[in-house]
Specification:
Bound molecules: D-sorbitol-6-phosphate, zinc ion
Number of helices: 2
Strand content: 35-45%
Helix content: under 10%
Shape: globular
Number of strands: 13
Structural class: mainly beta
Length: about 190
């Protein structure tokens, strides 16, 4: 491995941005086609094409074994019908790579899923450290009324596998019903 000089990069904890980020990715509704369960509501919102979330990658880390990468994610508050705004969700390409999330602002639900379809949800707020063990797919959901912000630290060689979640989604949807947050079965999940 290349010998690297230690460094630090500032996160603006007032809004979750990383002003000196190597890369900022914005995900609008149009970038998430087919991932929300309520198709008619998605069509209606499509004209506005709202910003759903942004990812600030702190540093352009080489994707090699032993290195760690880190990023912040800012998910806007909102819903597509009764389904809350959320990230796309992914498994790591190298399935045996875990990850740590740390809540910075707002409220969310951290949804994790094993390949078998077993789902595990952890509530997150500022100060929550949530661990994704190897082999679990993961998606975050903003269940609050302000942006939900968290820091993620992960092996730089973990990679992203978006395919299986793009095809089948998660086994559970996170929805608001009667003013409460509920996990319900995803009808598209086979
Ligand atoms: C990377 C880590 C996060 C997510 C980010 C966006 O391993 O889990 O940085 O990439 O929260 O989610 P997604 O599913 O669009 O990559
Ligand atoms: Zn990940």
């Amino acid at each position: 491995m290349q010998f690297m000089t230690p460094f630090s990069i500032q996160v603006d904890v007032s809004n979750g941005s990383i002003p000196a980020a190597a890369l900022v990715q914005s995900r609008r509704l149009s970038d998430m086609r087919g991932l929300y369960a309520y198709k008619e509501a998605e069509e209606t919102l499509a004209a506005q094409n709202p910003l759903i979330y942004e990812v600030y990658l702190a540093y352009d880390m080489p994707p090699v074994e032993g290195q760690l990468a880190y990023s912040t994610t800012v998910i806007q508050a909102g819903k597509v019908s009764e389904e809350y705004f959320m990230t796309k969700g992914h498994y790591h390409s190298l399935g045996n790579r875990g990850e740590l999330y740390y809540g910075l602002k707002g409220e969310g639900l951290f949804l994790m899923q094993a390949e078998t379809g077993e789902v595990h949800a952890e509530a997150m707020c500022a100060g929550t450290g949530a661990y994704v063990p190897p082999y679990w797919g993961h998606r975050t959901v903003n269940t609050g009324s302000e942006p939900f912000v968290f820091l993620a630290v992960y092996p730089a060689d973990a990679g992203y596998n978006y395919q299986s979640i793009a095809q089948k989604g998660f086994a559970a949807l996170v929805v608001e019903r009667g003013g409460k947050t509920e996990l319900v079965k995803n009808p598209r999940w086979l």
